[in-house]
C-alpha cells in the first residue's frame, strides 16, 4: 500500500491543482501524453496491452522518448490481432459467456522508458476508476476534454506484452506493485523465470535457457568447438548469452571472442566489433549471435561496408528468426545463416481478417492511417496524421496483400490473449458459480487470485498446440531451425531444416546450405585420434590443445587423461579400458618343449641301458676298473637330470615347483660329486707315485670310502636345497617379464637359483682342476682324460647357461637344455668307451689291460745312512726316513709290461717283478728308475735273439770306496745269492748283501737260450756303468770255455782300471761246476718257456701266481688307480710271505733276461 500511495499521491495533488484553476489555465494529465495514441475497446473486463507500434527512439532522441517509424509486423499486426481475438472471444458462447472483454492498447516503442510511461497510465486509469466507483459520482471535466458517451474507465485486469525482455522486466517491476498479472508473448529472458523477483509474470514462450540449449546443440552437431559470441546489450541478449556460455563450458566448447553491442549503436561500433571478430579467423568462423533483429542487421551492414563476405557463418536467436526486415538488402552477407524461430505456425484466420482491412473502415486502430501511409508510401490529405514526406495521395483502395508477411510471433500474441481469457473463466467458475456475468467477487478483479487461476490454465492454442505454464510461469519449448538459402538470382528465402522440441534436435543435413561449398569448420584444434589425449597449451582455452598419444599400456580415461593398466592387464582394442592379459606358461606342444622331452626320453633309455649293462657285467675288469659304485651314483644323477625337463615343462603347480627346486640341483650334484671323488682319487694316486719311494699307502682309497665321500658332497647340496625350500616355499606365481607379458612360473628367487648352481659350479671347478691335473696319465689310466673332456664341455655349457638364464626370458627351456646337455656329456664321454669295450671289444675286457703300467721303479741301498756319493744318480735320492721306519731296510726294484700293448698269445711277459734288497750295514740310499725298452720278438724259435739293445739298460749305483771284489757262489737252490766282501780298512763288521729275484714257478719248457747272448747283454750293462762301480767285475763269474760262453767283454781303454774284467771270462775267479751249469741251463729253459711259449691253460694260474708279487709289497710299489679290479688280498712288508718269497734269490740267467728286455728308461710316475 505504501507503494500505491507513493504513486497515487502526486497524481492526486496534480489533479487538485488542475481543478482549482480556471478553465483556461487547466491542463489535463492526459494532455501531457497527447502524442501517445491509445487504442481502446469497451468491455466488462479490460485487458491492457503493450505493443511496439513504433521503432525504438534513435540514440540521439532517447531523452525525448520520441519513437521511430511505425512497424507493421511487431506493431500494427499485433494490435489488429488483439482486436480480432477479442472479437472471437466475445462471440464465443462457451468462453466467458455474458462477459465482454475490452482492451486498452498502448505503444511501448520497444523502449523501456516509453513502456514504463505507458504502464503508469494503466495504473492511473485503474486507480481513477476504482475511486470513481467508490465515490459514486462523476467528475467534471473541461469542455476541451473529449467526451465519449457511455464509456466509463474500468480497472485493468491484466497486461499483455511487451515484446522485449528488458522492457518487460521494467514493466513487471511496476505492475507487480499493484498485483496486476502480466503475460508476455515474446519476452524470453531467463531472469523472468525467477518468481522471487517477478511473481506476476507469465509467458507463452519458452525461456531463453531452452533457446540457448537449442543453439548449443546445433553448434555441437557440426563440431564447431571454437566460436565467437555476440549479443545485444540488454536483458534479452545478456541473459541468453550467459546461458549459452554456461552450457558451452559444460560441453567443452570454447568462446574465441565475446562482445556486446546496442541495437541502435553507430556504424563505428559495428565496424569495431567486426574487426575483432576477424582477428579470430580462420579458426573461429562461426559467430553465435544472441541478438535482436536490428543488432543482426547492423552487423550485416558492417560486413558490406568492410567487404567481409562469406567469412563468417551466423547462428541467430529468435530475435532474428525468419524476419525479412532484418536481412532486407543484405541477403548475400546473411546467406547460409542458421536461425532459431519459436515454433508458431501461421494463423490463417488472422490473414483473412487483416487483409480485408481498409483505411476508411478501420476506426479502432488509431495508428492505422499512419501505417497506411507508410505502407503504401502515400499521404492522406487533411488527416491529422498526414505525412507530408510523401507526394502521392492514398486512394484507400490499396491492398495489404502486396508484400504481406505475417508476424512470426502472431500465434503467441493470440495465445497470450486466450490465456488471459481462460484464467478469467476459471476464476469466474470458482468465484461466481452459476452466476451470469460478473459477480461482486470479481468487481474489481483481484490480481493475486487471477494469477493463481492463470498458472493452472491449460488450453489448445490457436495452432493446435497445447498451452500451459510450469511453476515458473514458462511455456514448453518448441523451436524451428531455419536456414537462409539462395533460391534463385536475387531471391533468398528462409528454409525449414529442422526442429528442436523439449531437448531433442532434428536436422535434415541434406537441406542445409552454407555460405560456401562444403561444411564450414570452426575449431581451434583438430580432434585427437584413438589413443590420444588433449594437452591444453598454457594460456589457451580448453578447445585449443595438442594431441598426445598415451603409452602402450595406458588407456584413455577421459579426453585429458591417460591411465596405466595394472600389471597383468592391457588396454582393449578401443583403448577405453583394460582387459586381462592371457597367462602364458611353457606348453607341451611348443617346439622347444617337444625337442627337450624327446631328448630326455632318449637319454633315459640310454641311461637305463648303460645301467643294465653295468649290472650284468659288474664283475668284468672294465666295470671293476671304473669304480662301479661311483658309476652307479653318476648314472642315478644322469637319470634324475633327464627327469628334470618333465618337471620344468609341466604347468607350474606346488608339486612341480617342489620337484624343480629339488631335482635341478640334486641331479648335477650327484654326477659331479662322484666325479670329484674319482678324479681326486686318481690325483692322489699319481701324486704318491711321483715319490721316490712309496712308503705309505694313500688313505680312503677303498670303494666304500669313495661312496661315503661322494654321499657327503651330495648331502651338502641336499641340505642347501632343503634349507632354501623351507625359507622360500615353492609355489606358482605370476611373473611379469614385460608390461605386456604374464607368465605362470615357480617363485624361485635369485638366491634359490644361484646357491645350488654355485655349489654345483664349485664341484665342476674342482673336478675340472683334478681332471686337468691328471690329463697326462699313462694309457691305461685314460679314464681321467675322458673325465677331463667331460668337465671342459660341462664348464662351457654352464658358462653359457648363466648369462642366458639371467639375461633372457627363456629361463625354463634354458634350464632344461643345460641340465640335459650336462648329463648327456657325462653319459657320452664317460660311459661310451666302456660300452664299446664291453659290447664291441670283449677281448679287451681282461685284467691285464687295466693293471699294467709302462713304469719301472728300482731302488737300491739302505736309507739309514746318508749317501756320500756324488754320482748323477743322486737325483733319485729320497729324503731320509725317520727312525723306526719299517721300510727303511727294504729297497725294491719294480717294473712291468706296458698295459696298452697286446702281445701275441703265448708270448706274455710277467706282470710285475720286485727286487727286494736287505742289508745289515749302513749304506747309501740310491734309486734307479727304468722304463722298459721295446721288445723285438721274432716268433717262437728255439734260437731267440734280441735287437736294438741300448746302452741305457740298467742303472747300478754303488759307493765309490767299495772296491772289494765280488765273488759268485753257485747255490744249490733256485735262488741266486751274490756275496760281496767289504774292504778290511776301515774295519767294519762283516756284512753281506743278498739280492733276491723272484720268478713265479712255471712248468719247465725246452727252450734253449744261448749263453753267449745272455752274457753279451750283461757285459754291456757292466761296461756301461763299470766306471762308477770298480769291483763289479768280481760279481760275474767267468764260465769255462767249454760252456759255449762268449769271451768276456773287454773294457774300453778310457774306462778307469779299478773295474777290471778278466780277459778270458767274466767268471774266471769262480769257475762254475758242471752241476751248477746244468742247474742254470735248466732255470733258463723255465724262463724261456714262461715268457715265450706259455700255454693258454696256464694263463688261468697267472693271477694267483702273481698275486704274491703284486700285493705283498704295497709299500714298495705305487698303488694302482684300478686297485679295486685286482684280486683281493694284502700283506704287510713284514709278512711271512713277503719275507720268504721276496727274499728268494733268482737265477742269474733269469736276472739277465729281465735286464735285456728293456732298452729305454723313464721317470717316476
TrEMBL record:
GO terms for biological process: chemical synaptic transmission; phospholipase C-activating G protein-coupled glutamate receptor signaling pathway; regulation of membrane potential. Residues 1-20 form the signal peptide. Its main location: other. Residues 1125-1141 have a biased composition (Low complexity). The keyword Phosphoprotein applies. Residues 878-905, 1043-1144 are annotated as: Disordered. GO terms for molecular function: G protein-coupled receptor activity; glutamate receptor activity. Residues 592-854 form the G-protein coupled receptors family 3 profile domain. Residues 1049-1060 have a biased composition (Pro residues). The chain crosses the membrane at residues 594-617, 629-650, 662-683, 704-727, 753-772, 784-806, 812-831. Belongs to the G-protein coupled receptor 3 family. PANTHER family: METABOTROPIC GLUTAMATE RECEPTOR. This is Metabotropic glutamate receptor 1. It comes from Dromaius novaehollandiae.
